[in-house]
Amino acid sequence: SRSLRLAVVPGDGIGQEVVAEGLKVLAAALPADVKVETTEYDLGARLYHRTGETLPGAVLEELKTQDAILLGAIGDPSVPSGVLERGLLLKLRFAFDHHINLRPGKLLPGVQSPLAGDPKIDFVVVREGTEGPYVGNGGTLRTGTEHEVATEVSLNTAFGIERVVRDAYKRAAARPRKKLTLVHKNNVLVHAGHLWSRIFAEVGREFPEVSTDYLHVDAATIFFVTQPERFDVIVTDNLFGDILTDLAAAVTGGIGLAASGNINPTGAFPSMFEPVHGSAPDIAGQGKADPTATVLSVAMLLEHLGFAEEAAKVEAAVAADLLARSGTRSTSEVGDAIAARVSG
Amino acid sequence: SRSLRLAVVPGDGIGQEVVAEGLKVLAAALPADVKVETTEYDLGARLYHRTGETLPGAVLEELKTQDAILLGAIGDPSVPSGVLERGLLLKLRFAFDHHINLRPGKLLPGVQSPLAGDPKIDFVVVREGTEGPYVGNGGTLRTGTEHEVATEVSLNTAFGIERVVRDAYKRAAARPRKKLTLVHKNNVLVHAGHLWSRIFAEVGREFPEVSTDYLHVDAATIFFVTQPERFDVIVTDNLFGDILTDLAAAVTGGIGLAASGNINPTGAFPSMFEPVHGSAPDIAGQGKADPTATVLSVAMLLEHLGFAEEAAKVEAAVAADLLARSGTRSTSEVGDAIAARVSG
Ligand SMILES: CC(C)[C@H](C(=O)O)[C@@H](O)C(=O)O
Ligand SMILES: CC(C)[C@H](C(=O)O)[C@@H](O)C(=O)O
């Protein structure tokens, strides 16, 4: 019998509710001989208010020994914007070198897109997760005065870009359409942009079977709504990936369905799976949140840990559930329904 | 009789074609006693290839003496990405301190949005034009090697933010809905983001009649496609404004219709009006480009120069033309039709 050590970080707002459903489906999906040891970590607004800490060193050390992390959502209006995001969520992504931030954009049958004309959408965004404008390198001068100056530095390295670009080429090569689009803004952010473009071209020589193109981020948003079917795999930097994947979620039926993986493919540290949505404090605790994004993130977690068949089962169950949807169901009713399909 | 000194920079690709139609409509719109002295400046790829220059100092000096600038489009595949954008377009915006980059997002009757369900869209984006990640403050180390590091520094000042935020409040206060949304990413870009948020709150105290909210840029893209009617006036930084206004153009019928003004409200330097679209080299010279975005930019130019009635006339002519559209027309046919409505 195998065993799996899973860290669970429900976090804030609806995090608790959606993670519970994710675990329900995980239990239903795993083979009987796999024992899951889950450890729940109470990180987020509650811990911060109690102790002033966002990610205690001892917790970080313990997390390192886990096979994977399932995260709900981080952020609460009672905590200044950025404290939990930078001190917990981004800290985990950076500490565990989650350089592949994987976010599929797929419009599933039965799901209503806000776009007219029933578009066919099936792409995946490979977002860089450890560099760019997210490094936290910035500061202020004459803080709080009318002469304040604030900076944010985007740091980009050949090393960091090369590994995410190569990962994206591999994914593109493994898909039927074999198409990879680089998104940046190399006509304005010329230093970072040209580095991305250079490495994109260089690595591309190893993948002659992959067809490539380049779009400025502003133009990419246009195609997301007018021609989303043109995309297969997209590779982009941390900030552009953040923006594009929320837009991707919107056109594929909403953030209630958008899954993500913060992946360290080397295995040196645990990878972390989380819905793209936030903590939605306005509907927290009411059983209104759609747990599907978390369930699909659990499928990505399964896939990552080598349970490809089980991952496919969860995805199929979600697809069937979406097709059958009618009326309003509570968070746990959705989780129950998907878990039942997985077991059934 | 009054006179108007207008600089015309057709630029690259379709720039020439669309600017010609803009001038046609301008001539039709202006009162008979206003004399327009246009001076055409051949800037862009041709000049660059001929001389290596993007914006000669003498031209910059001459432009300063003009009342306004009408620009077509900048950028050509024969020139490395960024050379003309940074060396000409952004150089003009920065040299003339165009801190208000004004971009309306309005879905006009008769225009098909890619969004389902016939949304009502009528907002305006006030994009900061002289700061943020656009300042060109960055560089590379170990350039061209596998150890390259590239930086881009976003510079933000209380002074720069305050003036654009105040302008946005004024615009919001003058509109029926009186609503202003700040868009940034203050949970990640905490230094710049908190400065924006602080000043947004401070200036807001002078405009108690304006209701405000805040959205992270990623969330804003979701609402652009799921609930665009929620927006009235949006104020945001240079990069986020670039991204959001292309998306705004997409949901309001395409960049063929999206106008913009690079405005220096102090009048110290000429303001510049240009379509949001690029030079579209793939369709250049074929009479296929839609000149409507340029014509609407001419309306903004008229408004800026104090010809409010004439601006309204041009807008009405465009609205009527859009409603009457059927079949394919050439660039000049569209310009002729609108000009005829303006004169008629
Ligand atoms: C909460 C925030 C820090 C985060 C990000 O910007 O990466 C979120 O928007 C996401 O996309 O996962
Ligand atoms: C061409 C480019 C430099 C420009 C920008 O990024 O501002 C364009 O995209 C725009 O929106 O006017």
Helices and strands in order:
The structure is a homodimer of 344-residue chains.
Chain A: E1 2-11, H1 15-29, E2 34-40, H2 45-51, H3 57-64, E3 68-73, H4 83-95, E4 100-106, E5 122-128, E6 132-141, E7 149-157, H5 158-173, E8 179-184, H6 190-204, E9 211-216, H7 217-226, E10 233-236, H8 238-251, E11 259-263, E12 271-275, H9 292-304, H10 308-324, H11 331-343
Parallel strand pairs in A: 1-2, 1-3, 3-12, 5-10, 8-9, 8-10
Antiparallel strand pairs in A: 4-5, 4-11, 6-7, 11-12
The structure holds 3-isopropylmalic acid (2 copies).
InterPro entries (chains A, B): ICDH/IPMDH (IPR050501), IsoCit/isopropylmalate_DH_CS (IPR019818), IsoPropMal-DH-like_dom (IPR024084), LeuB_actb (IPR023698)
Family (chains A, B): Belongs to the isocitrate and isopropylmalate dehydrogenases family. LeuB type 2 subfamily.
Domain Isopropylmalate dehydrogenase-like (chains A, B): 5-338
Features:
homodimer, 344 residues, alpha/beta, Isopropylmalate Dehydrogenase, 2 domains, two-stranded antiparallel ribbon, 11 helices, 12 strands, binds 3-isopropylmalic acid, branched-chain amino acid biosynthesis (chains A, B)
